[in-house]
Design a protein that fits this description.
The structure is a single chain. α11 packs parallel to α13. This protein folds into 3 domains: 271 residues, putative glycoside hydrolase family protein from bacillus halodurans (Beta-galactosidase, Chain A, domain 5); 183 residues, Glycosyltransferase; 101 residues, no CATH class. The protein contains 18 helices and 33 strands. The chain is an alpha+beta fold. A 9-stranded antiparallel sheet has the order 1-8-9-10-11-18-15-14-13, with helices on one face. A 7-stranded antiparallel sheet has the order 2-3-4-5-12-17-16. It binds alpha-L-fucopyranose (FUC).
């Protein structure tokens, strides 16, 4: 039964089980590939993930390294001090090594250096979420495939060869915290406890075919196997629940159960189940914006990146990056699990940059900008799960803070410091309006999905609570306008009242709350109150050189290249300013954005995507495209990871969102098709992008004009669509 099902699935999905013989130029548009093993973890190794556990595959010949993570392996706690240094950090879990046997040389010394290697290739196949490594050595063709399975909850690695009995070597499992690895029949494992008491364990189990396995010096030695499948599962006792002090059951039992279940399935079945699950998300969107010349397409990805940087055209590399953002989000943000952190899920250090934390002044938000529009709404949910689970400690921290004391003595709601961990702990300066920015994500999930249960039970209560916080904390100026007191335009300028970033975000919150209340038909009186507050907020201002002011004081410097474009929030991801509704302000926003330039501090992983989306909203396709090229040219690593520097994942997620914004927009009450299509993409097709109002959009275009489009929704509905500059009212199918 199992096997028949498997065969059907394999045939149905057309899974590439043997993609090795590839003609030059026939590279899949959805594959990253290289002709050398990775040496540098962040720049060259290739990421896999099941939404919760993941790994980086190096593709070594003599010694394959698979560095792995679990998104809950964190030090730290509730951190009442708010001191960033004590907030804790995301930790490396460890490594799995597969090593070829050392060969005796003429001198008789054993050494790992041996025969010549030919036909080397390593790849990451985004269409199947599988990493593959192949090479020929001593007359044997070796093949290693790895994937991280969401349905089976573990990482699966298969090492096979084209000649029977040719898989020999050692398998090692090493923890990143000096644990002792134990061996028991075909199993390696280690366990430990972090300084905060978090318990963790990792298990690797070998399933050999043919040959022998024996334990030796804490490692397993394979001799003359036809192939071996390694199942790898890390886990912790983290529970996303403050009432349980963020701890649950010790991980061992669950890991062993998963191992047993997976060990009973043939590799092909594990693979088919994984691919079916993954493609259920990944295949929803397809994108073509042009054809890459065959000679360029045939190059390894790192060489293609170089050619692109030299000014070459490679539209398929652009769509590869677009899909890579979707791939990465599926790989690191699925229920049950934590949301994508600064490095997504992938971390090889116990002291990662910025603790690999959740940064609330742009980074974590950007991670999720593409979730809805790129048709991965489910991947947005771990972010909301984390927010909900942290509310208790965040309320407590807010109540205890000097900054938020009120005259009545009562503190309602919560807000955030710039960084946070997974135990309710906050770190560094307060980023007061981050609460409202988080609220935007909750609203947007509803706006795209129209999931009323979600709106009622999850989004609305949080939006209302954050409105109450701001009701209590806005300050009235002598002229009656309301301002956010003593705030900071992220990492730029003085702390003062009425900073544009904060004003715009609170406007966005109030507006989202009002719409949410209207949809649910609740809280009329409170809605009237919030509407009045919104209309009194000090609004965006145009300054002395025609720019959109970053502060109430007109002090913007036209030469400023600061990386943050916080005062343009109202254009994207907000919707207070638009070309159609507020043309003067939109013009001023363009002046500010142009002045920020693209040099110096403006070159960061996340700056290009934000500016790309901003230009897309401002209706400037060539500028938007310049930002796509800028990211490729200045802030991508050979494995196409965003580079802040160092490696930071926001740029990958952000560029997917921004490219989508060039193709479809739906923030202004209509579905705008190809609102910012650059000359570089004259002909193309996109399917599966989402628009607000639970719509799915397909567009074909030729010579820059829409030639065909289809808007679908679960039931027929009337929507306004802007097509080739003309607004039409259509009924969806
Ligand atoms: C914000 C940014 C930095 C960096 C850090 C992780 O503070 O200003 O550029 O991305 O987050």
């Amino acid at each position: 039964m199992c096997r028949r099902l498997l065969l059907a699935v394999v045939l149905f999905l057309g899974i590439q089980l043997a993609p090795s013989a590839r003609a030059a130029g026939a590279e899949s548009a959805e594959t990253l590939w290289y002709d050398k093993p990775a040496r540098v973890w962040s720049a060259e190794a290739l990421p896999l993930g099941n939404g919760h556990i993941g790994c980086m595959v190096f593709g070594g010949v003599e010694r394959e390294r698979i560095q792995f993570n679990d998104d809950s392996l964190w030090t730290g706690d509730e951190n009442p001090s708010g001191d960033y240094g004590r907030m804790g950090a995301y930790q490396n879990f460890g490594d799995l090594f597969l090593e070829l046997p050392a060969r005796p040389q003429a001198s008789g010394n054993a050494t790992a250096e041996s025969g010549a290697v030919a036909g080397y290739r390593r790849e990451l196949d985004l269409a199947a979420a599988v990493a593959r490594v192949e090479f020929q050595k001593d007359g044997v063709r070796h093949r290693r495939e790895a994937f991280a399975s969401h349905p089976d909850g573990l990482i699966v690695v298969r090492w096979s060869a084209d000649k029977p009995g040719s898989v020999s070597g050692t398998v090692e499992l090493k923890g990143a915290h000096r644990e002792r690895t134990t061996t028991e029949s075909n199993t390696l494992s280690f366990r430990g406890e972090l300084t905060n008491g978090l318990r963790y364990e990792a298990i690797a189990r070998l399933l050999p075919r043919g040959g022998t396995v024996r334990a030796e010096n804490g490692r397993l030695t394979l001799q003359g196997c036809d192939e071996v499948v390694v199942l790898l599962a890390p886990g912790t006792d983290y529970a996303m629940d403050a009432t349980k002090l963020f701890r649950g059951a010790a991980p061992g039992e669950g890991l062993r159960r998963r191992m047993e279940q997976a060990a009973a399935c043939p590799f092909a079945e594990l693979l088919a189940r994984h691919v079916r699950d993954y493609q259920g998300l990944y295949r929803r969107v397809s994108l073509r914006v042009g054809e890459t010349p065959a000679a360029v397409r045939a190059l390894p990805t790192d060489q293609r990146l170089k050619a692109y940087r030299d000014g070459g055209a490679d539209p398929e590399l652009e769509t590869l990056l677009f899909q890579y953002g979707r791939y990465l989000l599926i790989a690191c943000s699925r229920r049950p699990g934590l949301p994508a952190n600064l490095q997504g899920l992938w971390n090889d250090s116990n002291r990662p940059p910025w603790s690999s934390d959740y940064h609330a002044n742009i980074n974590v938000q950007m991670n999720y900008w593409g979730a809805e529009v790129a048709n991965l709404g489910e991947c947005h949910l771990p972010f909301f799960d984390l927010i909900q689970s942290q509310l208790g400690p965040w309320r407590k921290a807010t109540e205890a803070a000097r900054e938020f004391k009120t005259e009545s003595g009562r503190v309602r709601g919560w807000t955030l410091r710039t960084s946070h961990n997974i135990f309710g702990g906050l770190g560094w300066k307060w980023d007061k309006t981050a609460n409202a920015w988080y609220g935007q994500h909750l609203w947007e999930h509803y706006a795209f999905s129209e999931d009323k249960e979600f709106l009622k039970n999850v989004a609305y209560p949080i939006l209302k609570e954050v409105c109450e916080f701001w009701e209590d904390h806005l300050k009235a100026l002598p002229d009656g306008r309301l301002v956010v007191p003593k705030c900071w335009s992220p990492e730029h300028g003085p702390e003062e009242d009425g900073v544009s970033y904060s004003q715009q975000i609170v406007w966005d919150l109030f507006n989202n709350y009002l719409q949410a209340g209207e949809v649910l038909g609740v809280d009329d009186a409170y809605r009237a109150k919030v509407a009045a507050l919104r209309d009194k907020l000090a609004g965006p201002q145009i300054g002395r050189w025609g720019q959109l002011q970053e502060w109430m004081t007109d002090r913007d410097d036209p030469k400023d290249q600061h990386r943050h474009t916080s005062h343009l929030f109202a254009v994207y991801p907000g919707r207070q300013i638009s070309v159609a509704k507020t043309p003067e302000l939109a013009k001023a926003a363009a002046v500010s954005l142009e002045a920020r330039g693209t040099a110096g501090d403006s070159r960061r992983s996340w700056t290009w995507p934000w500016r790309c989306a901003l230009w897309a909203r401002l209706g400037n396709p060539e500028k938007a495209y310049e930002m796509v090229r800028g990211l490729f040219t200045h802030n991508l690593l050979p494995n196409l990871f965003g580079n802040h520097p160092p490696f930071q994942m926001d740029g990958n997620f952000g560029i997917t969102a921004a490219m989508a914004e060039m193709l479809v927009q739906s923030h202004a009450g209509e579905i705008d098709l190809l609102p910012a299509l650059p000359k570089a993409w004259p002909n193309g097709k996109v399917t599966g992008l989402r628009a607000r109002g639970n719509c799915t959009v397909e567009i074909e275009w030729q010579n820059g004009k829409v030639t065909n489009y289809r808007i679908t929704s679960p039931g027929p509905r009337t929507v306004k669509v802007r097509v080739n500059g003309e607004v039409k009212t259509v009924t969806t199918s």
